[in-house]
Design a protein that fits this description.
The chain has about 325 residues and is an alpha+beta fold. It is built from seven helices and 20 strands. A hairpin with a 3-residue loop joins strand 6 and strand 7 (about 85-90). Helix 3 crosses helix 4. It is globular, with a radius of gyration of 21 Å. It binds uridine-diphosphate-2(N-acetylglucosaminyl) butyric acid.
């Protein structure tokens, strides 16, 4: 285990921002993790656990210790008549976990195909796409508590999942390290194709009774057509959350902008931030080497060599402008440091 000094984070964040961490270490086991955490030299140094770096924007050098977990393993730990319970080590790549399930006929996460990042990071923001969230299939999260240095198990309800939200972003922020997640995958799965674009994609392919693999392929096709591949263009997926406003506020907006989309959530309505940003005129805007993606206005991009603080400033300008035009204050989904 080597602790590096002034280490470039460029390969460790999907935005591809070239900043440095004062200290950086890759740990291969809980033993090594505990060793680093109890090391006197780093005791009072700020620490950050990094997964795939797919939901982070570095705006400056990190003046602390970044710990990258490097534990691998996919294991079927239990099964009953209807489900298989599969444990994924935190540093397994999320899409590989999806492919493992799809190829073995285990259903439930096929709609979450091609989401960048690691398995350990997935519950933090309750990753979701095309009508499915990880909270729908997650049974347990195994963590190392930084208070007790003991391994603890959190059940689904302990995770307090919400839309792109969980206990790991709130009460447990900085207090635990996620070691593994366990998911409950269905043996006789009925795929969820209720999200409009999936239905359309399957229709195009003339598939009327899709299996798990068909849905995964459809999601991959949709994502590839709309979302930039972080290996080619730096980005962290949706930069903002879709705002939830009251029905009253929505109806007032609808009276002015009849075409505004909205998804009813009882007393509230969720409005696609991508629509607001596009209508405000930001979609496809480019400033030197960064900008707003041409095909999905929710995604900010680094075309190469951009500074995190410039992208952060762009996000501020978008928030101010959307607020001025629609009276809605967008919240960032990406963690900005
Ligand atoms: N829209 C526009 N212009 C745009 C983008 C979207 O007008 O540039 C409007 C359209 O009306 C479209 C609607 O927004 O019908 C919904 O668009 P889309 O299906 O692309 O979904 P989204 O709400 O923009 C959310 C997630 C994505 C996820 C998709 C599919 C959030 C913040 N984003 O985007 O998640 O892939 O749904 O489920 O909830 C991510 O979190 O990184 C991410 C990509």
């Amino acid at each position: 285990m080597t602790i590096h000094n002034n280490y470039s984070l460029k390969p460790h964040n999907t935005f591809g921002i070239d900043v440095q961490s004062k200290y950086f270490v890759k740990v291969n086991s809980v033993f090594e993790l505990k060793q680093v955490l109890s090391n006197e030299i780093y005791k009072n140094v700020p620490k950050l656990i990094l997964g795939g770096g797919s939901n982070i924007l570095f705006t400056k050098n990190y003046e602390g210790l970044i710990i990258a977990i490097n534990n691998k393993g996919i294991e079927v730990i239990n099964e009953d008549e209807h489900y298989r319970y599969i444990k994924f080590a935190a540093s397994e790549v999320w899409h590989n976990a999806v492919l493992f399930c799809v190829n073995n006929g285990f259903g439930g996460i096929e709609n979450l195909s091609l989401i960048p990042g690691s398995c350990g990071a997935a519950p933090i923001q309750n990753i979701g796409a095309y009508g499915v969230e990880i909270k729908d299939v997650l049974t347990e999260v195994e963590v190392l508590s930084l208070n007790t240095m003991q391994i603890e198990i959190l059940k689904n309800t302990d995770c307090k999942f919400g839309y792109r939200d969980s206990v790991f972003k709130n009460a447990l922020k900085g207090k635990v390290v996620i070691l593994s997640i366990t998911l409950k995958l269905s043996k006789n799965h009925t795929p969820n194709v209720s999200y409009g674009t999936i239905e359309q994609e399957l229709e195009k392919l003339k598939i009327s009774t899709p299996n798990i693999k068909d849905v995964s392929n459809a999601v991959i096709t949709i994502r590839e057509s709309k979302l930039p591949n972080p290996k080619e263009i730096g980005n962290a997926g949706s930069f903002f959350k879709n705002p939830v406003i009251t029905n009253q506020q929505y109806n007032l907006l609808k009276a002015k902008h009849s075409e505004i989309p909205g998804y009813s959530m009882g007393e509230n309505t969720k409005v696609p931030a991508g629509w607001l940003i596009e209508q405000a005129g930001w979609k496809g805007k480019t400033f030197n080497n960064y900008g707003v993606h041409k095909k999905q206005a929710l995604v900010l991009v680094n075309y190469g060599g951009a500074e995190g603080k410039a992208i952060y400033k762009l996000s501020n300008d978008i928030i101010t402008d959307v607020n001025a035009k629609y009276g809605i204050k967008l919240n960032r989904e990406v963690n900005c440091l």
